[in-house]
Amino acid sequence: EDPSSYTYIRPEAGGLMVGLFEPKAAAWNVGQIPRDFSFGEIEPDWERMAPFVEKAMNRVPATLNAGVKKFFCGPESFTPDLSPCVGE
């Protein structure tokens, strides 16, 4: 884990998984989350995420030549201010 670049990297399925967390996340579906939604994938914003991907890949230079197999982007269960929800 490298908090300075908002990155975590771990072995996964014979390769590396590089995870990113933004210091200021973009809101998703602010009006209302669909009732049948529990977990899913949303279209990644490559332009917004590029600086984080670049930092992460520079942290492990071998990834610069490996490329990206899958860029999964899914909404996380964080509050807008990144503080925990306590109680009901």
How much helix, percentage-wise, in residues? Answer: 10-25%
Whole-number mean pLDDT: 80
Strand content: 5-15%
Strand count: 2
Using the alpha-carbon principal axes, give the shape: globular
Give me the secondary-structure category.
alpha+beta
What sequence of helices (H) and strands (E) makes up the elements?
EEHH
Q: What is the terminal separation in angstroms?
A: 31 Å
Q: How large is the radius of gyration?
A: 15 Å
Please mark out the parts with pLDDT under 50 across 5 or more consecutive residues, or reply none.
Answer: none
Tally of alpha and pi helices: 2
Strand order of the main beta sheet, please?
A: 1-2
Largest sheet: 2 strands, antiparallel
Written overview of the protein:
The structure is a single chain. By secondary structure, the chain is an alpha+beta fold. It is built from two helices and two strands, in the order E-E-H-H. The chain has helices at residues 46-59, 63-66, and strands spanning 7-12, 15-20. Strands 1-2 form a two-stranded antiparallel ribbon. The radius of gyration is 15 Å and the shape is globular. The termini are far apart. The relative contact order is 0.22.
